[in-house]
Amino acid sequence: xxxxxxxxxxxxxxxxxxxxxxxxxxxxxxxxxxxxxxxxxxxxxxxxxxxxxxxxxxxxxxxxxxxxxxxxxxxxxxxxxxxxxxxxxxxxxxxxxxxxxxxxxxxxxxxxxxxxxxxxxxxxxxxxxxxxxxxxxxxxxxxxxxxxxxxxxxxxxxxxxxxxxxxxxxxxxxxxxxxxxxxxxxxxxxxxxxxxxxxxxxxxxxxxxxxxxxxxxxxxxxxxxxxxxxxxxxxxxxxxxxxxxxxxxxxxxxxxxxxxxxxxxxxxxxxxxxxxxxxxxxxxxxxxxxxxxxxxxxxxxxxxxxxxxxxxxxxxxxxxxxxxxxxxxxxxxxxxxxxxxx
Length: 342
Description:
Elements: H1 5-17, H2 24-32, E1 40-45, E2 53-66, E3 69-76, E4 80-81, H3 90-104, E5 109-112, H4 119-125, E6 129-130, E7 136-140, H5 144-151, E8 176-180, H6 186-195, E9 201-203, H7 207-213, E10 221-228, E11 231-240, E12 246-253, H8 259-274, E13 279-283, H9 291-296, E14 300-301, E15 314-317
Parallel strand pairs: 3-5, 12-13
Antiparallel strand pairs: 1-2, 2-3, 2-4, 2-9, 5-15, 6-15, 7-13, 7-14, 8-10, 10-11, 11-12
């Protein structure tokens, strides 16, 4: 793929014709605008009078923590084989070509969250290493969540009985304030640097990445910071999609101020409840620095059988020789900030 409107249209039309449309704005944001500034998308072009795509293998580059050092990785998504060209091995051939090109240009690894329909191909054909189970967490905010689950939606709880189940107010130490952050600058970088000191693998959540990430077309996010006077202590990023509930996209704070996590989550609950969310979702591994904050706030792990999105997590080293550390789940940090990039 080249960075042209013509190739972008071919990409867009292929998904439309195969019943899985993406907006042009979303595709442009994903592949033409990432801070890492490289384009790693391969096309298989059908030899027809009207040019169209037989298959696509797409990854986009992100600056990452790679076994504790700063490096480059790619997230795999938007893989497609046109229905008329399936069964010809294009998925494997194109992935191999893309991985070779990435490896030759210094990309350390590929990672992603394949769904149930494609996961077998990633594990067996592309030699990805599984990082499952997915770290889904859920926190009900209202009583109606349990009534709905127990009655399978047959009983709707009246609003006056739909009580809140989460504490949404907390007293702040003198000089501390909570406020929305609209300008993401160097203070974000410093908090992330200290929070992530012992993380082996993760997307670098620096201000440059966040400015791009939070511009995702069609999404709503809000970043709320906790400050001591003018100094940033930590921040929480929230998102919500109406009936699908709210999401804790990210929770980062100064490790020396552990109570910051609880304060930020309560503020997130307050804002999401006010927006009408009855539940809050998060991704968080049990070994993560902020996992205790989620558990103390009432989040519970979602059993794998209730993984309604049917997502899996995996990665593959692209270095020579391959790095075995990429497959160590305990070295990874993920959050829902990694989840809706497609």
